[in-house]
Design a protein that fits this description.
The complex is a heterodimer of chains A (about 120) and B (about 110).
Chain A (H helix, E strand, L loop, with lengths): L2 E4 L3 E3 L5 E8 L7 E7 L5 E7 L6 E3 L7 E6 L4 E6 L8 E8 L5 E4 L3 E5 L2
Parallel strand pairs in A: 2-11
Antiparallel strand pairs in A: 1-3, 3-8, 4-5, 4-9, 5-6, 7-8, 9-10, 9-11
Chain B lengths: L8 E4 L5 E6 L11 E6 L6 E4 L13 E6 L2 E6 L8 E8 L5 E3 L3 E5 L1
Parallel strand pairs in B: 1-9
Antiparallel strand pairs in B: 2-6, 3-4, 3-7, 5-6, 7-8, 7-9
Classes of the chains: A mainly beta (about 120), B mainly beta (about 110).
Chain lengths: ~120, ~110
Amino acid sequence: QVQLVQSGSELKKPGASVKISCMASGYAFTGYGMNWVRQAPGQGLEWMGWINPKTGSPTYAQGFTRRFVFSLDTSVSTTYLQISSLKAEDTAMYYCARDGLGNAFDIWGQGTMVTVSS
Amino acid sequence: QSALTQPASVSGSPGQSIAISCTGTSSDVGGYDYVSWYQQHPGKAPKLMIHAVSNRPSGVSDRFSGSKSGNTASLTISGLQVEDEADYYCSSKRSSTSLVFGGGTKLTVL
């Protein structure tokens, strides 16, 4: 079936980096844009941007242009989110989500919790 | 970037109908027919309920409907059920390369 499976929870110290993966299955990986969404504890959804799996070209939302990098490996149908120079305020659940219907996310990963704490 | 405006909470009784509003500007909600609605239960990933203002994905109950007037979109849930209790988020395209979510609305089914 169509699904996105994300890597497991991460506990990192401030200043470290983390790389989260999102593996797609059940559909043509290069046919749909992949988005990243952040949700801080008890807070709402925040769109971080997306990556075009055909070209590898990323688009970042305001506030996610400096320490955040989207990448992909089409050979394993996987998208990655790397966050560098981690801060406590990066503590959040991070979701990948497929844009299957035109600016509408029809398939979501289960989420990856990143905790930044000394 | 500022979020779309949603009420923090709404409530209703089983069987009733409720509506959740999502207010933006002419640069997002009012300018594009790309408004979506998501349902999120505690500890779960969001689920797409409405896309392109008023379209339901396959498998979503027809008790859920969407509409838009000017800069405000609305999600209506009719025949409220206990399992509808969740957080609801709207989203809209904002410019050719951007998207924005609403702040979220907590629905309580009394």
